[in-house]
C-alpha cells in the first residue's frame, strides 16, 4: 500500500518537474526577449508548480515517516539507495532516479536563467551609468562658468 502511494507521488513529481522544466525554458526565452508581461505570467505558473512540488515532497516525507523511516532516510538519494537493495522495489528506485534527473535538469535551467538575469542587470546598470554620467564630474563647467564639485551628479534629464 505504501509503495503504491509512493509511486503515485513520485509519478506526480515527475510530471510536475517536466512542467517546471518547460516553464523554465519559456522563462529563458522571455528573459532573452525581455518580454516582461509574459514573464510575469510564467512566474505565476511556476510558483503554482513549485508549491505543488513542495506539497508533494511534504506528503512523501510523511508517508515514509509512517512507514518507519527516519528523517535522514526520506531524501530522494537515500530512499533510492534503500529501495535499490530490494528487487521488488527496483522499479521505485528507477522512478526516483528519473525524478532526481529531472530535478538536476531544472537546477541547470534555473542556473542558466539566473546568469541571464545577472547579465541583464549588469547591462542595465552600465546603461544607467552612461546616462547619468561619471561619478566624478570634476573639471566640468556649469552654465555660469563655475566648476562642478566632485559630489554633484547630473540627473537623467541633463545627461
- Helix/strand order, N-terminal first: HHHH
- Helix count equals 4
- Mean pLDDT metric: 85
Briefly note the CATH topology name: Methane Monooxygenase Hydroxylase, Chain G, domain 1
Rounded to the nearest angstrom, the radius of gyration is: 26 Å
Task: Characterize the overall form.
Answer: elongated
Domain unit count:
1
Which structural class fits the helix and strand makeup? mainly alpha
Strand content: under 5%
According to DSSP, the number of beta strands is 0
Pick out the low-confidence regions: none
Q: Report, as a whole number of angstroms, the end-to-end distance.
A: 70 Å
Give the biggest beta sheet: none
Which bin fits the share of residues in helices?
over 70%
Please identify, by name, the CATH architecture.
Up-down Bundle
CATH superfamily: FlgN-like
CATH first level: which class?
A: Mainly Alpha
Give a verbal description of the structure.
The protein contains four helices and no strands. 72% of the residues lie in helices and 0% in strands. The protein has one domain (2-131): FlgN-like (Methane Monooxygenase Hydroxylase, Chain G, domain 1, Up-down Bundle), CATH 1.20.58. The protein has helices at 2-33, 36-66, 76-84, 90-132. The mean pLDDT is 85.
